[in-house]
Each structure stands twice: as structure tokens, then as C-alpha cells.
Specification:
Elements (H helix, E strand, L loop, with lengths): L2 E2 L9 H12 L16 H18 L5 E6 L2 H13 L6 E6 L2 H10 L4 E7 L20 E5 L1 E2 L4 E2 L10 E4 L16 E5 L10 E6 L16 H6 L9 H17 L1 H22 L3 E3 L12 E4 L2 H14 L2 E2 L10 E2 L8 H17 L1
Parallel strand pairs: 1-13, 3-4, 3-5, 5-8, 8-9
Antiparallel strand pairs: 2-10, 6-7, 9-10, 11-12, 12-14
Helix pairs in contact: 1-6, 2-6, 3-4, 6-7, 7-9, 8-9
Bound molecules: 4'-deoxy-4'-aminopyridoxal-5'-phosphate.
Length: 356
Amino acid sequence: MVHNYSAGPCVLPQEVFEKAAESIRDYNGTGLSIIEMSHRSKDFVEVMDRARALVKELLNVPDGYTVLFLQGGASLGFYTSAINFMKNEGGVGAYVDTGSWSSKAIKEAKLLGDVRVLASSQDQNFNYIPKGYEVPTDVDYVHLTSNNTIFGTQFKSFPESKAPLLCDMSSDIFSKSVDVSKFDLIYAGAQKNMGPAGTTVYIVKDEALGKTGRAIPSMLDLQVHSSKDSMFNTPPVFAVYGSMLTMEWMKKEGGVSEMEKRNEMKAQLLYSEIDRNALFEGTTKAEDRSNMNPTFVLKDEEAHAARFDQMWKNANINGLKGHRSVGGYRASMYNALGIGSVRVLVEVMKELERTA
Ligand code: PMP
């Protein structure tokens, strides 16, 4: 068994792969593959409806919100979120810059209007979540990135905001409970906790849309997609289907609260070893540590890196190399990664120390 610590695309439940493989050959005895049937067929419309309903159920989405499965990745979400919320005249978007992904969101928003950066952790290579800044009311929206996949930081609570709150939750959606009613828009690429790459989920408050006074291209207009039940054009059928299967798995396992419990246990196990083991140290402020993407380094790389890398590879661990902007290691521990895989990694770290 491979212990897959890849940052995304990433580990998904084994039973999702099995069901998906079967449905590629023959979907539910129809004699058709899930990827060759019309997206307007009754069978696929049911998949889309079920996937949208599961998002609502798992995240406890209140009435008055619409769930969409769109294309373009969360990277298009940076622009889509801005264009649907920033006023055409005198538009201002406020951003908390917690590193690469929020920086990219800021870059896209600047194409549309003014951007106010409320706070940034750039001064310390984004190793913490800024706090204590004032949240303005005279802006069109406030944009956050709930979990920074690269630097391994995560908001443990969200700021109160009178302006609409928009959040890129790509790397921690479904990993813990969240109060959706606080947000006017949540968006997330599928390829971490939700399913295969290829679709991006949008959870949008209906009454917040249509207020910018802009002409929005149809494919970026959340109101257009909403009016067509997420079927304005051909949806990414396999990614939506894979997401539906993954959400069914989450539901069967006990839902988001159970995922949260497991994720806390896994994070606790790994972070205590990072803190205990004299050879390693974490790269982020302890209070802002991500439960999804713990990042850490060897204190003396020259002395230990070659052996450690060989040892974890021998233990069938995959994808532990840190992102180039942080270096060291990143252990992405999404929902489908079992605690057994974390035990294997911790054992390798202990063994390195014992034999150093
Ligand atoms: N936001 C976050 C927090 C991410 O982790 C990623 C991708 N890892 C993105 C946005 C970009 O997503 P995509 O590759 O789907 O465009």
C-alpha cells in the first residue's frame, strides 16, 4: 500500500476508485460508460443533482444558497469571484494575503478594480495567519484563503465582516465544519477532499448576485450557471461523478464532523512528532498550523536529508517533498488519508532519530 501525501490531486477513498472504474465501463447497468452518456440524460442529471444536494447536506448549507460545479479550477475562481462581487464603478475588493494562492487572487482582482490588502504575512514568508487587522465596511467584499496549501497555514476562525465574505476553501473544504451562512461565496477546486481534478464547487448566496452593474461573460456569471442548474454548458461529467462518490463516502463514514475528528487526530500525531523529534522543526507558527498540509524541515539537511528521503521512500510514502517556495517536507493529509499512513511516517521519523 502506498501512503499518499500528495498535495492535490491526492489520495481518494479506494472504494471511489473501484466504483468509478466500474462506471467507466458500465454505469449502473445502462450499458453506457458514465463518460459517454449525454449530460442531459436522466442518469447524468441525477448525478449532478445528487452531487449538489450532497454538498448542501454535508456542509449544512442554509436555504438561499446555490451549489454549482463549474470548470476552470480555483484559479479561474479568483477572477470569477471578483467579477461577480466587485462593482463596475469604483469597485474595491479587500484581501488577506496569506501567500501564493491569495496573491494570485489579488492579481486577478486588480484586472477589475481596486484591491485593498488588509493584512499580509509576507514579512515572514507566509508562515502565519495575520490577525488584529480592521475589517472594512466600505468595500464590495472581503476575500480569504482558508488554508494555504503551500505554506501550511490555516484560519482557525474567520474574521467577522459586514461586507460580503468570499473564501477560497480549495484545500480544506469538507475537512471540518464551517458556518456557511457567514459567507456570500465559497469556492474550491475538487482535487483535494472532494474528488478528481476538473471541477470547482461554488456555494453562493443567491441574493448577493447581480449587484455589480457589470456585463459578465456568461461562463463567468454565477447567476447564469445558477439559472441553468449548473448545466449551462457541458459539465465536467467525470469530475462531478467522482466528487459525488467521494461525498457519498464522507456521508457514510459519518460526515464532516467525523472527518474533522480524524483530521485532528492525524494532525496531532504528526505535529507532536515534529515537535518532539530533535531532528525536525515545523515551519509555521504553532497556532496557525494547517491540519491539511503540515510543513516541516530537517534542522540539519546536509546531515540527514539523503537518508530520510531514502527511508520514507522505502516505507512506500509518496509525495512528501515540500513545495519549492518553502523547501523541506509537506505531508498533505486530506480526508482519505488513513491514520495508519501517518503512523508509518511518524515511525520513519523516529527511526531516523534512533539511527542518526
Ligand atoms: N487555491 C488553493 C488554496 C489551492 O491549493 C489551489 C491549488 N492547489 C488553487 C487555489 C488553484 O487551484 P486549481 O489548480 O484548481 O486552479
